[in-house]
Amino acid sequence: MASNTRVSILDYFNIVFEGENGKIESNCKACGTRIQAKRTVTSNFVTHLKRKHQAMYDEFVKKKDVKREAYSSGTMQNFAANTGGSSRASFQSTGTMAKFDRSDPRQALISEAIAKMIIRDLQAVHIVENEGFRELLQLLEPRYTPEPSHYIQQQLLPAYAYQVQLATKQALTGAESCSVTLDLWRGGAGVGAGTSGYLGVTCHFITTDWQIKSALLACLHLTGHHIPQRVLSEFDEISHAHGIAGKVFRVVADPSPCDTRPPFRLPGFSLHCNGEDEEEEEDYSSDEETRGGEGKDMVAGKDTDNSLGQCLGRCRIDCFARSLGLCVREGLHSSTQISIALTKAACFYNYVIATVAPEKLGQVFGSGVTPAAATQASASPAYRHWNVQLKTVRRMLESVDFLEDIIDRQDLALSAPEKALLRELVEVLEPFEEATDMVQLDKHVSISLALPCVLGLRKHLSETSTRHCTGIVMGLAQALDRRLAGILEDPLYVTATTLDPQFKLSWSSDLDWHKQVLLEEIAKHTQAVSPPEPSPEAQPSPSKRSKLFSFIKQRPTTQAKSVEQELAAYLHEEPTDEEPLHYWKRKSIDFPLLSQVAKKVFTVPATTTSVDRIFSTIGKTLRPERCRLLPKNLETLIYLKANYRILWT
Fold this sequence. Notes:
InterPro entries: HATC_C_dom (IPR008906), RNaseH-like_sf (IPR012337), Vacuolar_transposase_reg (IPR052717). The chain is of the alpha/beta class. It has 3 domains: 102-258 and 299-316 and 608-649, no CATH class; 263-274 and 320-487, no CATH class; 499-526 and 561-606, no CATH class. The chain is 53% helix and 9% strand. The strands form 2 sheets. It has a 5-stranded mixed sheet with strand order 6-5-4-7-8, with helices on both faces. It has a 3-stranded antiparallel sheet with strand order 1-2-3, with helices on one face.
């Protein structure tokens, strides 16, 4: 009978608890792992088999695919007759194709794929109710039963979030220490103007095998006028919930948490912008205007900084990437002349992209540049960063004479002084662009880069001589001293840079003083390991093996080295380009005390986190008037998108 041959995913699990609403807890028969789900939602069980027990999963799918294979061979009706089940035949009495059971692995995998699409693309969940989307599903797989949006919102996505929480807690139990990033995002007019925002708490830690891991611990919706107090209370609660309250080494936050403006763009350089973008740039064109306007709706800027600083104490440090961006912004705002030249350059570039043939554009900007591609690129979040826009200005200036010859609008051509001004600007900002590119990588970038970057930028500005950008050079130098000069004497940054094998103390102008700073800082974060003293009455008797190989020189007993000895031996080695974590994984036995500190300082990121980059896209992709997302649903989507690799790698 067909009913006797029916396969259920629960055949591979032992049910140990059954609660209300069909909730069950089961242990995997193969490994004993506890899985929680509902009888009607079996994707957790299917996913576990797929990840952990491939052979069992293949067996399960093979059994479930018997009918599917019969479909493809055109013998389904014979198959139904042979199995004796007209009600379970592939075609119902109406002649339509039978739908998958809820427990069918194909049904679960398609639902999972839809959820992954919603998470990765930050789509509104109600997309599954759209007529066009359902027609597409019907065409691709007519046996699939579309899941309602409330099922995805209330069951599927929360189930994935629960899996992430369990995996994160388990990973953090083995972490010796960690660092945390606090990212605060305030919504615009459509997302709870002024008094509404989101807090992202991201944890960074190094595993026992020296792999850096990051996980978003929580994304929380904040409302009201007491955001600093809420941030601190939520952070404290999250830390205790995840068992990291006593492990947090540093807390990284923006220099001005209330300053939640979009990424800084070159002033006046608007590429393919619509009216909305122009208005946004206008709103955020001045630091003073923002501090006096919208910023006060959510928090009073200085009060927020002081509250976070006082409560977090020495654990809190400013995000280096954000501070570097503020230096560039303040430096460029010191010159009004540059904005005029950049505005004209943007008009020229926009006209070239819209009118010049793609084959000629390829000669200047690369083969992949077309009007459509350029428009799409300029609308992306990355194109809103000043360093990405500066690359466009550079490429345009390299071929500006050629471009002016092939367009019919001479009124858009740049004058000789404007070209000279822009070329000087590119030259002045090139090291700042390089530093920004280094700390904005997708991978984890530690603060060991911060101190060398500041020294390099200082040296560059002191040696730069310009005719048109003198004010910008002075503005950049002043901003650099005001915001980042403290890094040069901060023990944390001195330690992180020195423990980076590519730098060590090669940058130092006062070796003795920096060595003393290092020793004092390392002493705070190390626990001396003393070798056990041998007992005189417990001397091992020589074995046959030791007699046989007695001619081999015995290795002397390793004596524990002091911090001073370890540091001297470490600095005696030549710097290397080896990745810091690879180096310390290899050298942790030779330098046990230094490696303890390295495992802490390299958890501190120099750049913004993945959730901060997600926040930067929310204003465009998830406006409530377009997607009707409730705050709780948005929290879940952000949480799963930031932790996507934990579930699906």
